[in-house]
Specification:
By secondary structure, the protein is of the alpha/beta class. The protein has a domain at 2-160 and 195-219 and 263-278: NAD(P)-binding Rossmann-like Domain (Rossmann fold). It has 11 helices and 13 strands. The radius of gyration is 19 Å and the shape is globular.
């Protein structure tokens, strides 16, 4: 089976490569970077600017994959709000170009397709995005599912983990700040599922391996607030929780609205694959053991 991973140098892309099945798959990748982050885990690599339709379509046609895994996106929700044209280009239009190839896709979506009034959400709950980011991701879901009935939408949220060149994670930020004796302000009114990138990748491979299609939620098994997550990080490392100060999302005056009482249910994932992603403690232990 031939797989093309779009965005293979990102946090999720790298974890997809690391988690790929041991046999039966040929995995190629494309990214904007001149060279791949994990060359030993790829059969071939091509540097492609996916915002250029002809270049993207040429790469897909050349390699003729059986599956396209798309892990490329603009996930900076405030940037999306400030530049909706760019958000639409990368998060929606490029996805449509990939889907037009007629190949089954794995496409990554988000809890931001919901309004955060009554989470955690199941796959068939009503969607109502509050932001440009959420809207473009919902539109991309529709493009993928309409192009191939075999395609898979993996909704996730609050992704973190280890990867070459990856930005500092929430766990690293809280741990390092508290170790340095610095106070941190963390919101108490945003709820969701912290998700380890490795678990998202494992869940995706299990879903594809079990011939699943449609929409699935793939997130960590623990639902909590950002504030509770930060306190759990402090507890894990034996650091001073008194340095964690509470605030509200409204205090941050961010450009994009956030779904506050969000989160995703994983009942369908567990039922159809037997795979249950780790809770916060398990995620931190996994990352620490691999460091």
């Amino acid at each position: 089976m031939n797989v093309l991973v779009v965005g293979c140098n990102g946090l999720l892309g790298q974890n997809l490569l690391r988690s790929q099945p041991a046999a039966g798959w040929t995995v190629r990748g494309i990214g904007i970077e001149a060279a791949p982050a994990l060359p030993d885990l790829l059969t071939a690599y091509k540097s492609v600017d996916i915002s250029k339709r002809t270049d993207l379509e040429s790469a897909i046609a050349e390699w003729a994959p059986d599956w396209i895994f798309n892990s490329a996106a603009i996930t900076d929700v405030d940037l999306c709000e400030r530049d909706p044209a760019l958000a639409a280009l990368i998060n929606r239009d490029t996805v449509g170009w990939m889907a037009a190839a007629g190949k089954p896709m794995v496409h990554i979506s988000t809890d931001y397709v919901f309004d955060g009034e009554s989470g955690p959400y199941a796959e068939d709950d009503g969607v109502n995005p509050l932001s440009v980011y959420g809207t473009t991701k919902l539109e991309s879901e529709e493009l993928v599912l309409s192009a191939s009935p075999k395609s898979l939408i993996a909704r996730t949220m609050t992704l973190w983990g280890r990867g070459k060149g990856a930005k500092t994670s929430f766990v690293d930020f809280v741990r390092d700040s508290l170790k340095a004796g610095k106070t941190v302000k963390i919101v108490t009114d945003q709820y969701g599922n912290p998700t380890l990138a490795e678990d998202l990748a494992l869940g995706i491979w299990k879903l594809v391996g079990n011939s699943r299609h449609g929409i699935y939620h793939v997130v960590g098994s623990e639902w909590n607030s950002r504030f509770e997550w930060a306190q759990g990080i402090a507890d894990h490392y034996g650091l001073d929780k008194g340095l964690i100060q509470s605030c509200l999302t409204a205090d941050l005056k961010q450009a994009a609205r956030r779904p506050l009482k969000s989160g995703l249910r994983i009942d369908k994932l567990v039922r159809d694959t037997g795979f249950r992603p780790r809770d916060v403690a398990g995620q931190i232990l996994r990352v620490d053991s691999a460091a």
